[in-house]
Amino acid sequence: MNEAELQAYSDAWNNHDIEAVMSFMTEDCIFDTGGGTERYGTRYEGFDEVKARFIAVWTDIPDVQFINARHFASGDRGCSEWTFTGTRPDGTRLEMDGCDLFDFQDGKIRVKNSYIKKVS
Known about the structure:
alpha+beta, Nuclear Transport Factor 2, Chain: A, six-stranded mixed beta sheet
């Protein structure tokens, strides 16, 4: 993958287009969230489990966007930096900086490892 493909992936996220998002993922993909009870966050494994988690993000925060994106790719690794914005169901506005570290396999994302700043 390259920077243009990572931007297309980001655009698919912002369009809430699950089919487009998942077209960038391998069948055995892994998503490690930015938080959770384990050192790596919470892990979702496999195409269907990752897809369900991504849909849940849009369900939980319907206006979620990843803005100010910057991307880097080299070989089988990549990074996207972004600002996460959205509104919780209770009306609380969210805005946090973060990044995704990617492992690529056969031109697709195999691992999406998210890191996000904690806002107190």
